[in-house]
Every structure is written in structure tokens, then in C-alpha cells.
């Protein structure tokens, strides 16, 4: 149950509302959240009686009391039916046109990231990606250029006019990364790193939240709820494959989550076919399939001369494939917009 | 390694070839297969020396000796690079246009199967599906109408001019079902029912082979190989979701297998989003995504008044959704054909 | 809901009971089952009103009407609280002592199966296993000796005084295999081969039912229910690992199913650590762990000179490891019997 | 490849060794590690020629050059064949006797944690567990008492003479938690939180590293390698179930990892059957099975009046079950020690 209160409710009114919730048996587990719909008090899982509820609804400062059938009220379409559009520079993620995010797995050096940025822009991508703080399975693998990498990425993006997205891995670095990055990425391994989620929720930047290797849709939306509950409304969900049993592909791309999430949440959803498959030759087809399934965009690993990538070379496409991807994604979206009118 | 011999090689020549294979150390595990490329001897996993190999290649009756890097030579594109097109009546599965297979989960009675057939045809489907021998998890659930159901299905298909596909579950019934059905379906639970695979391999009908709940791509292609090795070249692979951990959907649709299979095999691939998701509201989006990923067709559960389906009601779409599906699938395929030219 | 009727209820009484069930709204989906507790009518999923229920209970021939909270009444402990003991020769599976089943993956020839039988007996095994009809992933792999293999196995067992178990893969061969085998094994790939389950349910032999690669506990118990519903009370469940994501082991051994099944069903449960792990060096430890978890026995692949096994060599143990297994399994069972008294 | 150098090698010698490694083509990805065996340089994945290798081995300061067939040299038994024993107060984890860790999921208040501590001690447990910083799926769930909870836990442990273990979730809190806790727990969601792993690697406390929901054994050992590479030799691995498809249990307990890890690593391994199953009635059987499989200990959720637990009540056992667990675990270990002598 959620109690929505006026944004300008007085401290006294808020205190009274909190007291009434406790009196109704909600154990004081109240979560004041500053959200677009006004301030909220989320009373965790509590079901209260009709009388207590009526009394709550009548209190000064209360807009309304809402039952939300899912545990993630802020992410759900119950409180906010309209789709969220995340503005990033001139790009609008969730605004209708499929957004293409492209760039190398890791920022290698100035020359290469600038070349990748130029290739991305020329092929029609909207946002530049590149890893600087790299979560690597082995402590002995290249761990990324760190702060220097973030700056190089930002300069490369600025040089070609593309906003940039990069991963941040620990709460203590969120501020520094947010200074340079337009979007903060939270990686799959950190989907349930709750201190990190809270930190990016307070950083004033859109957050690209990748699904964990073995996360259910509900766990994923609750991870988004951590960010939203800190007052940051701009979360982009990114499906990147879940763990599977077949060694043919790196992960199993779960495209069914795209139309499913469109029903469960107002947040935009993009798809990363590079990590999902781990195979360059499958990336374009699945990016196009993602758009056909309704995704708001795709994120792919791309660089000139992909075979020279310092990590994830096997799943990195080249500029020519990116051009094909952009052209096919647009054609499919246009075809579906037309077909929807006919059907 | 595969030895391809002339289709009209004499018995003596064949004996000599077999003897040479044994002499080369292949243990006599030879599998004579009547295939389009001429007869084959598959020497299981054997690597033989260059001299033995040259001697084999020089024998009368031998066309050539081929190394196949996968354990399913007949299904692979090594021996047969050209895509297989499966003709079923006037329909050509794998022929370019996405083939739509639709109909109820189970044949319920004459009235309903005729109505479903008419609705399928009117919406633009190419083939009628309907279960008569139903594999049910519980022995106490409705097990299908059996032989009567097969006949009703065939009559309904004939009435509207659509070929029909239905499942067969045991070797002893293959002949009877093949008398009425245009395509024999082998279900997920029976993907590795090897006696059944051999029986449908000898039945003279195309076989629609569903992927097992937890089958790898290689296991699936080896199941197809059982059918092909009996001399039946017409196998249609059907992805229908693999087992996952999230209760939101019945299974996990693995669309990455579509472009992957296009590289590994010449057999046509279709997708069943109904069983993959178990949710009616996701079926159309994922059917369209499947076509965008390159699938040769889709199979969906559809009937008028879906909520009255005697099984799988939650995942059955109605005629209106089928019309949207057909329209969108065609639009996407046309858009991609156009985009491919541009790219 | 289940209606239990007297074993000697008259045809007229049965007809009347069936009619009352239909009148109560159970749609005629009645399943008369000859079970130990008297004959049963299982009314699939039906909940009927209190009055209809009272009328049913009062009918001549009715013993009682029982609500069963699971969909597998015959396998559940609701109708039969006492544990089932399956007698096989002098062996009692589920009778307290851990039963050890050992032997080669496949019967290779007379010499080797007799040597394996002698080694199994000498090490303290109770039952001899050996495959004759082999379900092989590839059509080009050795498919077993078939009927000849079954006879060799039976002769080897007889020579050393051990009952034998072997797999049967198709309904048409159940009778022939049952002539020689003391226990009929249904393999993982056939756990939901329903015609086969019905056939072994009528064969008059105990059935060892392996869990499917990706079967839930409920699906597995419903597969057992198919056998029980044919009147065969002697089903032994065999856990053999479920599909997982880590290539280190062939499958994931799910030992939690052992104490869980002890709560859900009266049927005995054994564990196969050979197929579960695919690694010889893990077999003994996990066999002992299975007994510690409460398993009624274990089944392992064993033969003299394991490295010469014609299939599954990597997971086959030798006679010395089998002796250690038997000794440790007995010690653990004895320790737990003692500790239970103390605790 | 690993180069082991004398602990007292001079800076000049170290520089020379590093230079030789780069010259040999290892790209400078050298990782100097202070380990028990002397200092190491780990040259990631590099294979170098025989001559370069001989030259390296001959350099002043070099003890030897070792090929390690796995990517986790410090965790592997190649460099350190002897099992690691982790001392915690008077307890020796990995020292032969199964170590029992017990306590509530979350520290609720002073009264309850002291009662739980007393119950744990009385039942024979060796270490007290309790969560203070709780990783909760929902931002609206109770998040633990935080710093106050850590202190309460430490006081409760001190009062009954048991060391304590508690979870730490972010690098910035490692120091504070390490002040009070004897063992730092890294939870499943943070198994690949690399900044956290590095921080606990420098904290001077043993680390209990839980396996991730969907982590392979190799990924888990590489996570341990992050801790070891910071110079902390005291890592305890804790299996707690991996994600599965069957809702009957919360996770799938992978007991095969116990004997497998005994071959791959020298680190002690314990098992958490509470989180693995989520069901109180399965905990004791599986704890005993874990010990039978060779585990060095178990960790269980236990408190007086388990049904009042503020989280994880369904999987929390009571003091009586803990007594049975301790008694059975000891009996099984003793029986196996005896049987091993006999076998």
C-alpha cells in the first residue's frame, strides 16, 4: 500500500500521517520517497483495515491511498501509467525511435576510443559506450584504465557529439564518474549491490541497470526500485542474457522480458545482444529482433577492427555491421508502426 | 568422417568400402544412410590416417571422403550448404515467406476444430495445428481424442484447404497418424525418444521436431540426425522455450538459436512463442521478433474464444491477434528484405 | 479428491458412484485405479460441495472420500502414510539397509559382464545393473547389444546370485525385457514418455524411474503416478542430477530432493552419483552423502578396469572404490541410526 | 605461469624479473602477490618459450617458475598442496572436526541475540552468526540494525565465548565491521563485487565467501583469488545453493562441489543448507550429508522460537534441531574416519 501526499505537506502533517500508519499496524516500516507523483509513503506489504484506511485517506496532506499489487510501486505502472522517457542530451530513450548505444568493451587508449566514437557516430549510433572500470572475473586480467578511461571516453564522446555511458562499480567512485559520464551503468554482477544502487540513485544522472546473471524480473525491478526510491526517476533497464546450460552462447537472451516489462513497468528497456550471445555473428539479427519485440534500444560492442579488442573481441562487431543494424532496426520499427495501423 | 558413395554403387563395391573402413580402424561402426547427396557411410568419430584415407577415396563407388567438424553430418551445412525447403501441400517451409501454423492446443470436438480451422485460414495462416494424442503431465488430465481427434483435424484442414500437423507419441501409432497428418510433430518430452525418432524417420512425412526442455543445440541437431539417418530429409526444427528459473513465463524463449541454427544447419527453423511464454499477451510480439531474427515461421495456439480452450487457455490467442501477427510478420520480413539490399 | 471404494464393490455400485461423481460436477474425468488401499476413483482436480460429498460418502461400496492436497494421490503419503518397500529377490529396497546397485554402463560382452557381476557381488552390491538398449545422443554411437545384452545381463546376475536392472526404451519391448530383468529402468530422457510409463505399469515388474534432466519434483511424482495408476505399486525413484550451467560436472546432483521426497511420497528413493557428476573421483563421496541424506540406496557405474568401459568410462568406478563405498555407506547409516536414538 | 621469488628479493632484482617477463611477451600484466610461498609474479595466461623461461628461472631472486593449469594459482593446490586451516579463536576451520556456525538470519535486538548465542553454544556450535547489514531484495524490507547490530552480535558472542561472523556489503564499512567481527562474510550477491573483495583482502580478518547464485566453480575460485591476491590467506568457501527451476526449494544445493573443491583448492569449504533449501525440515539432513561429502563445516540459521524470526523464518531451525545436527554430524565424521581405515 502506498500513501501519496502533497509535495508541500507540512512537517506536522507528515508526522501525523506516519503516526496513523503505525497505528494501522504497518510497524513503522515507512519509506518516504520523493517521486514525480508527489511524495509517497510506502508501507511495506501491509494490508490495513477499511476503517484505518479511510481515516488515513482523510488526513490533511494526503492525496490518496493506493493498493499496488506488486512490491515495486515506483517502478510499476499502477502509480505511473505513462511510459518514462529518459532524456540524455538530445537523445530520448523510450521516446519512440530505437536508441543505439555502441562502442568498445573497454577504453584502450586515446587513438582507439576516438576512432570508435567516430565510427559509432558515422554509423548512426546515438550514444557512445566504453568501459573504464572493468569488472573482470580474474584479478590478473586487465582491469580498465579507471579515471583516465572515463575522461578519455567523455572527450571522445564530446568530439563527435555523442553522450557517453560507462560502468561504475563502487559507491565511493560514483561522484567522480558522474562528473564525466552522461549515464551511469550498473553491471550485471552489481545488480544487487544495494549500497551502489543507493549511491547512483543520488547521483543526478540516468542509470542503466543491467539484469543480473540469474535475476528474476521481480528482483530486477526491485533493484530499479532502490534507485527510484532515492529520488532518481531515470532508470533504463538493460537485458543482457541470463545464465544457461548450452556452451554455444555465452548466455541466454531472454527477449520475452521486453513485452513483459512493457506491461509491468513504465521504465524504458534496452537489449545488449553482445554479452547475451558472446558471438559477433549473432549480434545484428538479435538486435533487430529486440526492436521487433518492442525494445526502446540496443547496446552493442563495436569498434573498428573488432578482432583487436582488448576484451570481448569475439562478440564485438565492426562499423559495417553497425550500419546494417541501424538500417534494419529503423526499417523494422517503421514497418511495425505501419502494420499496427493496419491491423 | 563421411564417405559419400554413388547411389548406384554395387553391393560388392559397398562391401569393399565397408571393409576398408574397418581396416582403417573405424571399428565397424558404419552407418549407411540414403541421403540426397548420394549414399553415405558415417564413420563415427573416427580419424584415420592419410594413406588409409587416400585408399578409401580411390575405391570404386566412392564419390569423396569428407571431414565434418560436427557430430551431425547430415544436418550440417558441410555436406549440404543449400537450405532445405520442406514442401507441405502448397506451402514451402524455408522458402522465404514466414509460414504461420495456428490452431488449438487440443482438438476438442468437430464444431470447435472446424471453427478454429476457418478462423486460422481467414487470418492468413498456412497450416492448421491441433493435438489429438496429448502428452499430459498428470495421468488424470484429459489425454486427447486420440485417433478420432486426428481424423477430425484432417477433415477440418481439408475443409478449409490447409495442411495439418499433429503430435505422435509412440512408434506403434506413427503409421496411423501419418495416414491423416501432413506433418508429424515430435514433442519436447520426446525429443530424445530415439525409437520414436527412427519411426518418424521411416514414415514418409515431414517431421516437426520440438526442442527438449533442457536440450542443447547439439543434442537437438543429433535428434534431427536420427530422423535424417533413416532417409527422411524433411525435418523442421521448432524452438519452444527452455526451462528457466523465473515463474513469470512458462519457459525461456531462446531466440538466439534462430541465427545460430542458420549457421549450423540447412534445416528450416520455426518458433513457438505460445509454449515458450505461456502468456497470451506476449505471443504476437515474440512471434514477430522470431521472424525478425530470421525464423522460417511460427507456430501458435489459436482458437475462437480462447478462454474456452480445454488446455493451455492462458497462452491461446484469438483470431484478431492472429491477424495482427500475420500482418506484422509480413511487414517485418518485407522491411528486412528491403533493408538488406540497402545495407 | 479421491473416492475409495471396496475392492469387491459390485458393478452396479461402481456405476452408481461414477454417476454421482458426474452429478457432482466432476465432468466424468474419473480414473478407476486398483490400488493397495482398495479401488479408487480419482476425480481430477474437482472440488465438490459438502452435500454432494456427503451423498457420495454414503453410497454403498464407498469406503471414504479423501481430499488430497497434491495432484499425485497414489504417490502421496496422504493415502498411504507407510513407506513402500519394494522386494526384489532377497533385497528389500526401502527396507532400512542402503541398497547398492552396481555394474557397467553398457553390457559389452559375456566375459566382461560376468567379470563385472562377480566384482559387484564380491564388493557387497545387492543388484547388478547393465545397459542393453542404450539411449545414445548420436545415432552413430554404439546403441547397445539389445535383446542379446538383456539375456547376458540376466545370466551374469543369476551366476552370482544378484537380481538385475536394465533400461527399456519403448512400449513394444517392455514384455521382452521384463522376461529377463528383475527391475525395469525408465531413463531420464523417457521420464515423460507416457506410453512407456503405462506399459511398464502393466508389466508386473518393479520400475526404477529416473528423474528427467529438467523435471520438477512434481512432474517426477506425476510420472510415477502414471505407473501406479496402472496398478503397479513398485516404483523406485532415482535422482541422477539435473541440468546445470557449470561444465565442471555433467549435471547438478540435487540431494535436497531426498529428504523432500521422504515427506511427499512413500516411494523409495535412490541416487545415481555417476551420471550426476560424470566424474569417477566424486562418486564415492556423493554416494555416501546420499545415504547420509536418507537415500534408500545408490546406483553406480562400476566395472573392473573402468578405463576400458565402452561408454561413460570417465564416470565408472572400479571394484576397490565400490568396496569403500559399501563400507562407508554402512558405517554412515549405522552412525545415524545410533545418533538418532541419542538426539 | 607463476614466478616465485624470494621474500627478501631486492627491488633491483624485482625490477629485473619484471623486465624479463615483459621481454618474454607477457605484456606487463604482472601481479606481485605476497603469499605464504614467497612473493609471486603472476603472468596472466601467458605461455612463454623454453629459452625465455630458462632465463627467467636463472635470474637472481627467483625461486622457481611454475606452470599452473588453472587461472587461480593462489587458490589452487598446485602451488600449495597442503590444506589451509583457518584459525578463529580456538576454532580451526578445516582442521578435521566439522565446524558448526549457527545463529539468526538477522540480529533483532539484545535479548534475542543473547538468547540465540546461548542456545547456539549450548547445542554445541562453534561460531555465532547474525546479520546486521542485510542485503534485502526490496528497499522497503528491514535492512538490519547496521553498526548497532554488529556490536550486539560481538557482545553476544563474547558473552558465551563464541567467535562471530557477519556480512559486510561495501568497501567503506569493512574497517568498522572488522573491528567487531571475527570473520567477514561476503554474501552471494556480492561474490563478484571486486572492490569489496579487495577491501576484505586487506582487512586482516578471515573471509567467508559465499558462492553466487549462478557462479561457476571457477568464477568462485577466482573471486577467492581476489582476496588471496591482496595477501589474505584465510578464505573459507561457503556453498549455499545455486538458482534452479523447481519452486519446491529456494535454491539447488550443489553438494558435488564439496569433493570437487577438495581437489581444486586448499581452502576449507562449508555448506549453508538453510539458504540452499529455504525449508527448515530439510536443514538437518542436508547438513549431515554435507559433512558426509567432506565439508569442513556447516552454517545454519537457528534461533529459539524460529517462527518469530524477523527474516527467513521458514528456513530457521530451533535449538533442538541444532543439537541433533551436531550429534549426527559428529557421528558421521567419526564413522567415516573409521571406515576409511577399514576400506
- What is the assembly state of the chains in this entry? homotetramer
Largest sheet of chain A: 8 strands, parallel, barrel
Radius of gyration of chain A: 21 Å
- Percentage of residues in helical conformation of chain A: 25-40%
Average the pLDDT over all residues of chain A and give the rounded result.
92
Number of contiguous helices of chain A: 11
> Which two chains form the greatest contact, residue counts included?
A-B, 50 and 50 residues
Structural class based on helices, strands and sheet pairing of chain A: alpha/beta
Number of domain modules of chain A: 2
The top level CATH class name of the largest domain in chain A: Alpha Beta
Report strand order across the widest sheet of chain A.
7-8-9-10-11-12-13-14
CATH architecture group name of the largest domain in chain A: Alpha-Beta Barrel
Rough shape of chain A?
A: elongated
Strand content of chain A: 15-25%
What is the chain-wise order of helices and strands of chain A? EHEEHEEEEHEHEHEHEHEHEHHEH
Number of DSSP E strands of chain A: 14
Can you say what the CATH homologous superfamily of the largest domain in chain A is?
Aldolase class I
Amino acid at each position: 500500500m502506498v500513501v501519496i501526499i502533497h509535495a508541500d505537506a507540512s512537517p506536522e502533517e507528515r508526522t501525523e500521517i506516519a503516526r496513523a500508519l503505525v497505528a494501522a499496524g504497518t510497524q513503522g516500516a515507512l519509506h518516504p520517497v520523493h517521486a514525480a507523483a508527489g511524495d509517497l509513503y510506502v508501507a511495506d506489504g501491509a494490508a490495513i483495515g477499511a476503517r484505518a484506511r479511510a481515516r488515513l485517506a482523510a488526513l490533511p496532506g494526503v492525496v490518496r491511498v493506493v493498493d499496488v499489487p506488486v512490491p515495486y510501486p515506483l517502478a510499476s505502472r499502477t502509480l505511473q501509467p505513462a511510459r518514462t522517457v529518459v532524456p540524455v542530451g538530445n537523445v530520448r530513450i523510450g521516446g519512440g525511435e530505437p536508441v543505439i548505444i555502441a562502442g568498445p568493451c573497454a577504453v584502450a587508449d586515446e587513438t582507439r576510443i576516438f576512432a570508435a566514437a567516430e565510427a559509432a557516430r558515422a554509423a548512426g549510433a546515438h550514444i557512445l559506450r566504453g568501459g573504464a572500470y572493468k569488472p573482470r572475473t580474474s584479478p590478473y586480467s586487465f582491469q580498465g584504465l579507471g579515471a583516465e578511461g572515463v575522461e578519455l571516453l567523455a572527450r571522445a564522446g564530446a568530439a563527435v557529439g555523442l553522450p557517453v555511458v560507462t560502468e561504475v562499480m563502487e559507491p565511493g567512485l560514483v561522484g567522480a564518474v558522474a562528473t564525466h559520464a552522461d549515464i551511469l551503468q550498473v553491471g550485471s554482477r552489481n545488480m544487487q549491490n544495494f549500497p551502489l544502487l543507493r549511491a547512483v540513485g543520488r547521483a543526478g544522472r540516468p542509470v542503466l541497470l543491467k539484469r543480473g546473471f540469474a535475476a528474476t524480473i521481480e528482483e530486477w525491478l526491485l533493484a530499479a526500485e532502490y534507485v527510484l526510491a532515492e529520488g532518481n526517476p531515470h532508470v533504463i533497464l538493460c537485458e543482457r542474457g541470463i545464465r544457461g546450460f548450452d556452451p554455444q552462447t555465452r548466455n541466454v537472451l531472454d527477449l520475452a522480458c521486453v513485452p513483459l516489462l512493457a506491461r509491468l513497468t513504465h521504465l524504458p528497456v534496452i537489449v545488449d545482444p553482445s554479452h547475451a550471445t558472446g558471438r559477433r555473428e549473432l549480434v545484428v539479427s538479435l538486435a533487430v529482433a529486440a526492436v521487433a519485440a518492442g525494445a526502446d534500444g540496443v547496446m552493442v560492442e563495436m569498434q573498428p577492427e573488432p578482432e583487436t579488442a582488448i576484451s570481448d573481441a569475439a562478440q564485438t562487431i565492426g562499423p559495417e555491421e553497425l550500419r546494417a543494424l541501424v538500417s534494419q532496426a529503423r526499417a523494422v520499427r517503421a514497418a511495425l508502426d505501419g502494420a499496427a495501423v493496419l491491423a
